[in-house]
Amino acid sequence: MLDVALVSLIQDMSEKAGVEGTIQYWARVGESLAKRMGKEAYMGWPSFNVALREGRTAFSIEGDVTALTDLAITDADGDVVGYIYALKECVFVPTILRIRYSVGEVPKADQAVAEEYNSSIRDTAVCNFCVIHQRFREEVSKNITVGDQPLECSQLAARGFTGETKIAEDSLKKIGINPEYVRSLLRNYTCVYAILMRGARLRGEEVEE
Amino acid sequence: MKDKDERGTTLIEDNPLVDVAAYLFLEDIADKQGAAGMNTYLMSLATSLAKSMPEEEYNTWEDFLEALRKGESIISSFEVVKTRTENCMVTQECPFARGWMEYTQRIGSFSNVHYDVAEYYNSNVKPGTINTCCIIHQTFRNAAAERIKVGGKSLKCAQIAAIWSDGVKKIAPDEWLPILLDKAKITRTELNMILRNNADIFVLYLE
Question: What are phi and psi of A191, to 5 degrees?
Fold first, then answer.
């Protein structure tokens, strides 16, 4: 109920504070959520991936996240520095359905916020809620270490409720993953992202240089 | 999704991340606007939600109760409402509880601001809330009731008692309770019995 109430105010917020204002609000919510969830440390990738599978990491709040362990990200030396992760269902979908059955239509500001985010920050949002959880993931990864190395998160692809997709080709190039492969993952998942060791020398970056 | 067979329809569960994010958003508002500002914000949030939903009209009280039980009325859009008498309504599970449990599990204790704002509401608007969720919920129900007509008369809603997930109860003040129980057609003992395994008890009646 709280989610539907809040969405009913997106339009109002966006009219009063502008869509830029809504983006700032949402980004702050994502940051605050990540900060308040505390720090985590894992011995290595297997223990992190097990924790993720069992719903024990901060990332698990989003729902059913799968570690695609066949998609290891390696650095220039061939060492594993991260993996690709995929969220089964977008966190905003239940809210969209609840709005559909109670209020009717999702406010137009939803797409206006996503479009503004795509043009001013990063072209990766399919709805307004992407602002919160993409920022959340970025911030939460700073609080997690794997083998004493802090992490970073990179948004790779998302599929919206009506089927539209956003693929972050630059990020995929850096980690050396074919965009078409990630596009095919969107058939089964709604959001795909990479978690990797911060500052790792990636193969894709080496090629660029 | 969660089946609610007593309704014959499906109640879609919200994602906890969205709920927790909403709580944090409200805390951000409270930091900037204080208890009074947040209270106003919550009430307008709930009122605008109710106003965004279609109005309803029923020929008879029985028609209305049937729609309520089936989850077809605004009042039962977000929760399963059961009828103890023809005016006494109960909900077994608070629609905010899932988000609150996720918050306490992932983040820690619920921020005090949620209780402070409820105290403000209790002393300045109407006594009966435990935390900010109750402000939204009760304001929503009152605003939703105003959008419903039964036999041409406006529906009214009054809160009798709320019990939060941690067991904290808030019962209507002693001077109001006999009138409310009379309207609900239940006794004080029955109220105590209902309180054991329900989250909210309220009365619906015609003007």
Answer: -145, 130
pTM of the model: 0.81
Which residue of B12, B21, B96 is in closest CB contact with A29? B21
Q: Which of residues 69-128 of A touch B (CB under 8 A)?
A: 89, 91-95, 97-98, 101-104
Q: What is the distance between the alpha carbons of residues A101 and A52, in angstroms, rounded to a whole number?
A: 32
Closest-CA distance of chain A to residue B21, Å: 6
Check CB contact of B21 with chain A, cutoff 8 Å. yes
Burial B90-120 (b: 16+ CB within 10 A, else e): bbebbbbebbbebbeebbeebbebbebbbeb
**What span, in angstroms and rounded, lies between the C-alpha atoms of B205 and B200?**
16
d(CA A44, CA B86): 60
Q: Tell me if A156 sits within 8 A of A137, measured CB to CB.
A: no
- A147-199: pLDDT as tens digits: 999 999 999 999 998 899 999 999 999 998 999 999 999 999 999 999 999 98
b (16+ CB within 10 A) / e for A36-57: bbeebebeebeebbebbeeeeb
- B85 to chain A nearest CA, in Å? 25
Radius of gyration of chain B (CA): 17
Number of structural domains chain B divides into: 1
Q: What is the ipTM of this complex?
A: 0.73
Range of the domain at A46: 2-208
Look up the domain containing B165 and give its range. Answer: 2-206
pLDDT given at position A188: 92
Residue A105 backbone zone (phi > 0: left; psi -120 to 50: alpha; other: beta): beta
